[in-house]
């Protein structure tokens, strides 16, 4: 079909870091098999929960470079991923109900958000030897400070749960909800499986469909089966694309 009419599938592995290397390996294998190649993105956390720092020259840093060299796109995904801010009002509700203390950039000031973004960008780019694809806040949650910092950043792309956009201009490049799964409880898992099944029927009209997986997904066979089915369902009908292709 003409490029202007092409429909794409964008897939990503979140929370990539040395503390989840085994889980990321398993997910990378699943995505590679389902998508017939390493055509997906990884969201890299420089120091997950201040306990798993990524350092240049380490074995894990070398793995990141190898993954990037294979064509996997690398996003900066916060710095700690953990939310350590005090929230009020709507932000407090988001922090409590939308994520388990994972929305690191929801309550940061502009200056602090900018510092963590820039430090993350510098670290990831030094390791992979090329420009990072963009920035995606942990749990897809951005406060006003983070949004202001993004507008002044050098990142080409940003993403939240409902869209992908160019930070400097606000131009939206893809719309529609990310298909993702929850493993924290039986009820959340059941709900995410039902939503994924519905998405496999309802989201075909979207120009771009996004699928995101997390290290915790490997703990439940039902989630892994749903991920595989979902990826294959959309890959049969559309091109497996890259985030950077949205800029074209």
From TrEMBL:
<dbReference type="Pfam" id="PF10096">
    <property type="entry name" value="DUF2334"/>
</dbReference>
<dbReference type="InterPro" id="IPR011330">
    <property type="entry name" value="Glyco_hydro/deAcase_b/a-brl"/>
</dbReference>
<dbReference type="InterPro" id="IPR018763">
    <property type="entry name" value="DUF2334"/>
</dbReference>
<protein>
    <submittedName>
        <fullName>Polysaccharide deacetylase family protein</fullName>
    </submittedName>
</protein>
